[in-house]
Amino acid sequence: MTVLSLPGLLVPLAEPGWWVLLFGFARIAWPFSSTVAGGCP
């Protein structure tokens, strides 16, 4: 993969649905990864 082909791959993914899915996954994964990194109680 080259740097020039990267924007071409990101443009089709830059849809509102993909952003909502990405942020939704981040909101779920961030606290979970933070808990694992901090140590499970």
SSE-based structural type: mainly alpha
| Count of distinct strands | 0
Give the N-terminus to C-terminus distance in angstroms.
42 Å
Task: Work out the helicity level.
Answer: over 70%
Question: What is the arithmetic mean of pLDDT?
Answer: 72
Unreliable stretches covering 5 or more consecutive residues: none
Q: How are helices and strands ordered from N to C? A: HH
> Total helix count?
2
Biggest sheet record: none
User: What's the oligomerization state?
Assistant: single chain
* Rg computed from alpha carbons, rounded to a whole number of angstroms: 15 Å
Range of strand content: under 5%
Describe this structure as you would to a colleague.
- There is one protein chain.
- With 41 residues, this protein is mainly alpha-helical.
- 78% of the residues lie in helices and 0% in strands.
- It has 2 helices and no strands.
- It has helices at residues 5-13, 16-38.
- It is elongated.
